Protein backbone atom coordinates (compact mmCIF):
# COMPACT_ATOMS: atom_id res chain seq x y z
CA UNK A 1 0.00 0.00 0.00
CA UNK A 2 2.78 2.44 0.92
CA UNK A 3 4.55 1.70 -2.37
CA UNK A 4 1.42 2.58 -4.36
CA UNK A 5 0.93 5.77 -2.34
CA UNK A 6 4.50 6.91 -3.02
CA UNK A 7 4.36 6.07 -6.74
CA UNK A 8 1.00 7.80 -7.15
CA UNK A 9 2.23 10.88 -5.28
CA UNK A 10 5.36 11.08 -7.45
CA UNK A 11 3.15 11.04 -10.55
CA UNK A 12 0.41 13.39 -9.33
CA UNK A 13 2.51 16.13 -7.71
CA UNK A 14 4.29 17.20 -10.95
CA UNK A 15 0.95 17.12 -12.78
CA UNK A 16 -0.65 19.36 -10.14
CA UNK A 17 2.25 21.83 -10.27
CA UNK A 18 2.21 21.87 -14.08
CA UNK A 19 -1.54 22.56 -14.10
CA UNK A 20 -1.09 25.39 -11.59
CA UNK A 21 1.68 27.19 -13.43
CA UNK A 22 1.33 26.31 -17.11
CA UNK A 23 -2.37 26.21 -17.99
CA UNK A 24 -4.27 29.32 -19.11
CA UNK A 25 -7.29 30.32 -17.01
CA UNK A 26 -9.91 28.56 -19.16
CA UNK A 27 -7.87 25.37 -19.33
CA UNK A 28 -7.18 25.46 -15.60
CA UNK A 29 -10.89 25.91 -14.96
CA UNK A 30 -11.71 22.89 -17.11
CA UNK A 31 -9.25 20.76 -15.14
CA UNK A 32 -10.90 21.82 -11.86
CA UNK A 33 -14.30 21.10 -13.41
CA UNK A 34 -13.14 17.59 -14.38
CA UNK A 35 -11.89 16.97 -10.82
CA UNK A 36 -15.15 18.35 -9.43
CA UNK A 37 -17.16 16.10 -11.75
CA UNK A 38 -15.30 13.06 -10.42
CA UNK A 39 -15.91 14.32 -6.89
CA UNK A 40 -19.61 14.61 -7.72
CA UNK A 41 -19.59 11.05 -9.06
CA UNK A 42 -18.21 9.93 -5.70
CA UNK A 43 -20.56 12.17 -3.70
CA UNK A 44 -23.53 10.32 -5.19
CA UNK A 45 -22.75 7.48 -2.79
CA UNK A 46 -23.16 9.85 0.16
CA UNK A 47 -26.59 10.75 -1.17
CA UNK A 48 -27.49 7.06 -1.39
CA UNK A 49 -27.26 6.72 -5.17
CA UNK A 50 -25.09 3.63 -5.57
CA UNK A 51 -26.04 2.53 -9.08
CA UNK A 52 -23.45 3.45 -11.70
CA UNK A 53 -26.05 5.24 -13.81
CA UNK A 54 -27.07 7.59 -10.99
CA UNK A 55 -23.47 8.18 -9.99
CA UNK A 56 -22.45 9.10 -13.55
CA UNK A 57 -25.47 11.37 -13.88
CA UNK A 58 -24.53 13.11 -10.63
CA UNK A 59 -20.94 13.63 -11.74
CA UNK A 60 -22.03 14.94 -15.13
CA UNK A 61 -24.54 17.21 -13.40
CA UNK A 62 -21.89 18.78 -11.18
CA UNK A 63 -19.52 19.22 -14.13
CA UNK A 64 -22.27 20.71 -16.31
CA UNK A 65 -23.20 23.20 -13.59
CA UNK A 66 -19.61 24.40 -13.34
CA UNK A 67 -19.20 24.53 -17.13
CA UNK A 68 -22.26 26.79 -17.29
CA UNK A 69 -20.84 28.95 -14.51
CA UNK A 70 -17.50 29.30 -16.30
CA UNK A 71 -19.16 29.98 -19.65
CA UNK A 72 -21.29 32.72 -18.11
CA UNK A 73 -18.31 34.61 -16.68
CA UNK A 74 -17.78 37.91 -18.52
CA UNK A 75 -14.01 37.46 -18.13
CA UNK A 76 -11.49 35.89 -15.76
CA UNK A 77 -9.85 39.14 -14.67
CA UNK A 78 -12.56 40.42 -12.34
CA UNK A 79 -14.08 37.32 -10.79
CA UNK A 80 -14.86 38.98 -7.47
CA UNK A 81 -16.98 41.55 -9.30
CA UNK A 82 -19.23 38.66 -10.35
CA UNK A 83 -22.09 38.11 -7.90
CA UNK A 84 -22.13 34.39 -8.68
CA UNK A 85 -18.51 33.94 -7.58
CA UNK A 86 -18.76 36.21 -4.55
CA UNK A 87 -21.98 34.60 -3.34
CA UNK A 88 -20.50 31.13 -3.81
CA UNK A 89 -17.53 32.05 -1.62
CA UNK A 90 -19.85 33.43 1.06
CA UNK A 91 -21.89 30.24 0.84
CA UNK A 92 -18.68 28.25 1.28
CA UNK A 93 -17.75 30.18 4.42
CA UNK A 94 -21.17 29.64 5.99
CA UNK A 95 -21.26 25.99 4.92
CA UNK A 96 -17.98 25.15 6.62
CA UNK A 97 -19.13 26.76 9.85
CA UNK A 98 -22.25 24.57 9.62
CA UNK A 99 -20.20 21.50 8.66
CA UNK A 100 -17.98 21.93 11.72
CA UNK A 101 -21.09 22.04 13.91
CA UNK A 102 -22.41 18.88 12.22
CA UNK A 103 -19.14 17.07 12.89
CA UNK A 104 -18.87 18.24 16.50
CA UNK A 105 -22.45 17.18 17.27
CA UNK A 106 -22.27 13.85 15.40
CA UNK A 107 -23.99 11.36 15.63
CA UNK A 108 -26.97 13.38 16.86
CA UNK A 109 -26.64 15.81 13.94
CA UNK A 110 -26.94 12.96 11.44
CA UNK A 111 -30.58 12.48 12.44
CA UNK A 112 -31.35 15.82 10.77
CA UNK A 113 -29.94 14.96 7.34
CA UNK A 114 -29.10 11.26 6.86
CA UNK A 115 -32.52 10.44 5.37
CA UNK A 116 -32.81 13.60 3.26
CA UNK A 117 -31.67 13.27 -0.35
CA UNK A 118 -32.09 17.00 -0.92
CA UNK A 119 -29.95 18.00 2.06
CA UNK A 120 -27.14 15.59 1.13
CA UNK A 121 -27.23 16.88 -2.45
CA UNK A 122 -27.13 20.46 -1.13
CA UNK A 123 -24.14 19.58 1.06
CA UNK A 124 -22.37 18.32 -2.06
CA UNK A 125 -23.11 21.51 -3.96
CA UNK A 126 -21.89 23.63 -1.04
CA UNK A 127 -18.69 21.59 -0.92
CA UNK A 128 -17.82 21.42 -4.62
CA UNK A 129 -19.03 24.73 -6.12
CA UNK A 130 -17.22 27.04 -3.63
CA UNK A 131 -14.12 24.86 -4.09
CA UNK A 132 -14.17 25.61 -7.83
CA UNK A 133 -14.83 29.32 -7.20
CA UNK A 134 -12.01 29.53 -4.64
CA UNK A 135 -9.57 27.80 -6.98
CA UNK A 136 -10.38 30.16 -9.84
CA UNK A 137 -10.39 33.30 -7.70
CA UNK A 138 -6.98 32.54 -6.24
CA UNK A 139 -5.53 31.43 -9.58
CA UNK A 140 -6.51 34.74 -11.18
CA UNK A 141 -4.95 36.82 -8.40
CA UNK A 142 -2.82 39.49 -10.06
CA UNK A 143 -2.91 37.54 -13.33
CA UNK A 144 -2.71 40.57 -15.62
CA UNK A 145 0.48 41.73 -13.89
CA UNK A 146 2.12 38.39 -13.14
CA UNK A 147 0.43 35.22 -14.34
CA UNK A 148 2.17 33.15 -11.67
CA UNK A 149 1.11 35.08 -8.55
CA UNK A 150 -2.15 33.20 -8.07
CA UNK A 151 -0.47 29.88 -8.78
CA UNK A 152 1.98 30.51 -5.96
CA UNK A 153 -0.83 31.31 -3.52
CA UNK A 154 -2.76 28.21 -4.51
CA UNK A 155 0.40 26.21 -3.99
CA UNK A 156 0.74 27.90 -0.58
CA UNK A 157 -2.68 26.69 0.56
CA UNK A 158 -1.92 23.19 -0.70
CA UNK A 159 1.45 23.12 1.09
CA UNK A 160 -0.25 24.44 4.22
CA UNK A 161 -2.79 21.62 4.18
CA UNK A 162 -0.25 18.92 3.33
CA UNK A 163 2.12 20.14 6.06
CA UNK A 164 -0.69 20.28 8.61
CA UNK A 165 -1.79 16.77 7.68
CA UNK A 166 1.77 15.41 8.00
CA UNK A 167 2.40 17.26 11.25
CA UNK A 168 -0.89 16.11 12.72
CA UNK A 169 -0.07 12.51 11.84
CA UNK A 170 3.42 12.68 13.37
CA UNK A 171 2.42 14.52 16.55
CA UNK A 172 -0.68 12.38 16.91
CA UNK A 173 1.34 9.17 16.72
CA UNK A 174 3.90 10.44 19.21
CA UNK A 175 1.76 12.28 21.75
CA UNK A 176 -1.90 11.86 20.81
CA UNK A 177 -4.16 11.21 23.80
CA UNK A 178 -7.19 13.47 23.53
CA UNK A 179 -9.54 12.56 20.67
CA UNK A 180 -10.96 15.37 18.52
CA UNK A 181 -14.03 13.59 17.19
CA UNK A 182 -13.84 9.92 18.26
CA UNK A 183 -17.25 9.04 16.84
CA UNK A 184 -16.24 10.33 13.40
CA UNK A 185 -12.51 9.57 13.14
CA UNK A 186 -10.91 7.95 16.21
CA UNK A 187 -7.37 8.56 14.92
CA UNK A 188 -7.47 12.38 15.06
CA UNK A 189 -6.31 13.99 18.29
CA UNK A 190 -6.03 17.49 19.71
CA UNK A 191 -2.28 16.97 20.07
CA UNK A 192 -2.17 16.16 16.37
CA UNK A 193 -4.08 19.34 15.58
CA UNK A 194 -1.54 21.40 17.55
CA UNK A 195 1.28 19.62 15.73
CA UNK A 196 -0.38 20.37 12.41
CA UNK A 197 -0.67 24.04 13.31
CA UNK A 198 3.02 24.15 14.22
CA UNK A 199 4.20 22.52 10.99
CA UNK A 200 1.85 24.69 8.95
CA UNK A 201 3.26 27.75 10.73
CA UNK A 202 6.77 26.73 9.70
CA UNK A 203 5.64 26.29 6.08
CA UNK A 204 3.93 29.68 6.17
CA UNK A 205 7.12 31.35 7.43
CA UNK A 206 9.30 29.61 4.84
CA UNK A 207 6.88 30.46 2.03
CA UNK A 208 6.69 34.17 2.79
CA UNK A 209 10.46 34.27 3.16
CA UNK A 210 11.52 32.38 0.04
CA UNK A 211 8.63 32.29 -2.46
CA UNK A 212 8.79 34.87 -5.30
CA UNK A 213 5.87 36.97 -4.06
CA UNK A 214 5.60 40.70 -3.48
CA UNK A 215 2.22 40.97 -1.76
CA UNK A 216 0.94 39.09 1.29
CA UNK A 217 -2.63 38.90 2.65
CA UNK A 218 -3.38 40.97 5.70
CA UNK A 219 -3.45 38.81 8.84
CA UNK A 220 -1.85 35.91 6.93
CA UNK A 221 -0.85 33.95 10.05
CA UNK A 222 -4.34 34.21 11.58
CA UNK A 223 -6.05 33.29 8.31
CA UNK A 224 -3.66 30.38 7.79
CA UNK A 225 -4.38 29.07 11.29
CA UNK A 226 -8.11 29.19 10.66
CA UNK A 227 -7.66 27.49 7.30
CA UNK A 228 -5.66 24.66 8.86
CA UNK A 229 -8.34 24.03 11.47
CA UNK A 230 -11.09 24.13 8.85
CA UNK A 231 -9.11 21.78 6.60
CA UNK A 232 -9.05 19.22 9.40
CA UNK A 233 -12.82 19.46 9.63
CA UNK A 234 -13.02 19.08 5.86
CA UNK A 235 -11.39 15.69 6.32
CA UNK A 236 -13.66 14.91 9.28
CA UNK A 237 -16.78 15.96 7.36
CA UNK A 238 -16.01 13.52 4.57
CA UNK A 239 -15.33 10.82 7.17
CA UNK A 240 -18.73 11.59 8.68
CA UNK A 241 -20.50 11.26 5.33
CA UNK A 242 -18.66 8.01 4.58
CA UNK A 243 -19.53 6.62 8.01
CA UNK A 244 -23.22 7.38 7.54
CA UNK A 245 -23.09 5.90 4.03
CA UNK A 246 -21.27 2.77 5.24
CA UNK A 247 -18.31 3.10 2.83
CA UNK A 248 -14.56 3.07 3.52
CA UNK A 249 -13.21 5.04 0.54
CA UNK A 250 -15.05 7.42 -1.76
CA UNK A 251 -13.78 5.27 -4.68
CA UNK A 252 -10.67 3.43 -5.86
CA UNK A 253 -9.73 5.85 -8.64
CA UNK A 254 -6.31 6.70 -7.20
CA UNK A 255 -4.17 3.65 -6.36
CA UNK A 256 -3.16 3.66 -2.70
CA UNK A 257 -5.13 6.83 -1.99
CA UNK A 258 -8.78 5.90 -2.47
CA UNK A 259 -10.89 8.37 -4.40
CA UNK A 260 -10.73 11.99 -5.51
CA UNK A 261 -12.67 13.17 -2.47
CA UNK A 262 -10.30 11.26 -0.20
CA UNK A 263 -7.45 13.37 -1.63
CA UNK A 264 -9.14 16.77 -1.84
CA UNK A 265 -11.47 16.65 1.19
CA UNK A 266 -9.24 19.01 3.19
CA UNK A 267 -8.75 21.28 0.17
CA UNK A 268 -12.48 21.57 -0.51
CA UNK A 269 -12.63 23.31 2.85
CA UNK A 270 -9.28 25.11 2.85
CA UNK A 271 -9.43 26.70 -0.62
CA UNK A 272 -12.80 28.50 -0.40
CA UNK A 273 -12.22 29.49 3.23
CA UNK A 274 -8.80 30.96 2.44
CA UNK A 275 -10.19 32.83 -0.57
CA UNK A 276 -13.27 33.97 1.34
CA UNK A 277 -11.32 35.20 4.36
CA UNK A 278 -8.74 37.03 2.23
CA UNK A 279 -11.07 38.65 -0.29
CA UNK A 280 -14.38 39.01 1.56
CA UNK A 281 -13.61 39.23 5.29
CA UNK A 282 -10.08 40.66 5.39
CA UNK A 283 -8.80 43.50 3.22
CA UNK A 284 -6.94 41.54 0.59
CA UNK A 285 -3.23 41.71 -0.12
CA UNK A 286 -0.69 44.36 0.79
CA UNK A 287 2.95 45.06 -0.01
Automatic annotation (TrEMBL):
**Keywords noted in UniProt:** Cell membrane, Lipid biosynthesis, Lipid metabolism, Membrane, Nucleotidyltransferase, Phospholipid biosynthesis, Phospholipid metabolism, Transferase, Transmembrane, Transmembrane helix
Give the top-rank taxon of the lineage listed in the UniProt record for this protein: Bacteria
Might you give the EC number(s) for this enzyme?
2.7.7.41
Q: Which residues cross the membrane?
A: 28-44, 56-73, 88-106, 118-138, 150-171, 192-213, 219-237, 267-285
UniProt pathway: Lipid metabolism; Phospholipid metabolism; CDP-diacylglycerol biosynthesis; CDP-diacylglycerol from sn-glycerol 3-phosphate: step 3/3
Task: Report whether Cytoplasm shows up as a keyword of the record.
Answer: no
Q: Name one GO molecular function term.
A: phosphatidate cytidylyltransferase activity
Q: Which reaction does it catalyse?
A: a 1,2-diacyl-sn-glycero-3-phosphate + CTP + H(+) = a CDP-1,2-diacyl-sn-glycerol + diphosphate
Q: Which residues form a coiled coil?
A: none
Q: Which PROSITE patterns match?
A: CDS
Q: Which Pfam families match?
A: CTP_transf_1
Provide GO CC annotations from the record.
plasma membrane
Per the record, the GO terms for biological process are:
CDP-diacylglycerol biosynthetic process
Bilayer topology = Multi-pass membrane protein
The UniProt entry, under InterPro entries, shows:
PC_trans (IPR000374)
Q: Which cellular compartments is it found in?
A: Cell membrane
Q: What is the protein's major site of localization?
A: membrane
* Family, as annotated: Belongs to the CDS family.
* Name of the protein this chain belongs to: Phosphatidate cytidylyltransferase
Species assigned in the record: Proteus mirabilis (strain HI4320)
Its encoding gene is what? Answer: cdsA
